[in-house]
Amino acid sequence: MTRVAAVDCGTNSIRLLVADVPAEGAHTDLLRRMEVVRLGQGVDATGRLAPEAIERTRRVLAEYTAQARDLGATAVRMVATSATRDAANRADFEAMVHRTLGQLPDVVPGDEEARLSYLGATASLAAAAAAHGGPPPRPPYLVVDIGGGSTEFVLGDAGGVRAARSVDVGCVRLTERHLHGDPPSADEIQRAEADIRAGLADVAAAVPVGEAATLVGLAGSVTTVAALALRLPAYDPVAIHGSRIPVGAVRSVTAGLLTATRERRAASPVMHPGRVDVIGAGALVLRVVMDALALDEVVVSEHDILDGIALRLARP
Q: Could you give the CA distance from residue 221 to residue 170 in angstroms, rounded to a whole number?
């Protein structure tokens, strides 16, 4: 058994997982945290990480560093993704991480991000389905990880990843580019959808998405859509992990989010405060993907790149 700490620093949030990972089988969570720090604030427009965003990230990372040490993690890996990849002042961020964590982050390319997401998402798929009384999802899987700056598409099966592609259509990026109204106008939504469809054309050129038997959706946008579709009275990761959401429910939830005001979205008992302003764009990505690829349902996973980082760290 190896005790490891994984940190995933995306465009919208920074997350920590401290887990015991055996040589085989499921890992055990000791601590799982998520804080919205919006590191990628304005990166799409300026090409730079804002100093205040780096400082917000530093404060949370300092807490994570202390907690990983107190829990006795023997190895730590921090992965940074879209916002950091795109930033001209990436060195400022890396220097802050080195001072705070004691080591540099791994700023991974999109394909590596996709592979880590696939590893984390598929490791517990069968167990999650069994917990809901359903059969295991059928491979090949198309794993779709909707992040703040980018979305990763990975096709694979029990043998591993067959093909992967990362495209710049994350929920923060799309919101900052297009969805400015409260609620957004029809024209704004159309422009966002056009960006998503252009990204899907790039994906289709690299990933044979038509071979997928099961769509697996990851990350906060997808899990929040699932929580709304399931009409949960409060956010419940156990109820969400492994749930199957039909495309009709995804369409209905997405339409509701895109026509609601910010105040109304914030009033939902399942909505994280840091996701209120970008959930419409995240839901739109999921709805457009399902419609464009004619997929009837999405299997929702609470496990994602964070779990993949921990598993790869313990089982190199």
A: 10
- The residue ranges of the chain whose pLDDT is under 50 are none
**CA 155 – CA 76 distance, rounded (Å):** 28
Tens-digit pLDDT profile for residues 12-43: 889 999 999 998 888 999 999 999 999 988 88
The pLDDT value given to residue 44: 78
CB atoms within 10 A of CB 46: 12
State whether residue 142 is helix, strand or coil. Answer: strand
* Residue from 120, 169, 179 nearest 146 by CA: 169
In sequence order, what DSSP letters do the residues of 5-27 get, joined into one string?
A: EEEEE-SSEEEEEEEEE-SSS--
H-only helix segments in the chain: 43-46, 51-70, 82-86, 90-101, 110-122, 125-131, 171-177, 186-206, 219-229, 237-240, 247-259, 262-266, 279-292, 305-314
The two three-digit tokens of residue 169, written as one number: 């259509």
Q: DSSP letter at 185?
A: P
> Rounded to an integer, what is the distance from CA 173 to the centroid of its chain?
14
| Closest of 82, 93, 5 to residue 43, by C-alpha | 82
- Write the DSSP string, 289-303: HHHHTT--EEEEES-
Query: Between β-strands 151-157 and 141-146, what pairing exists: parallel, antiparallel or unpaired?
Result: antiparallel
pLDDT tens for each residue of 249-302? 999 999 999 999 999 999 999 999 989 999 999 999 999 999 999 999 999 999
Longest dimension (CA), the chain: 53
Residue with tokens 């959808």: 193
Give me the pLDDT at residue 33, please: 95
Give the count of beta carbons closer than 10 Å to the beta carbon of residue 52: 11
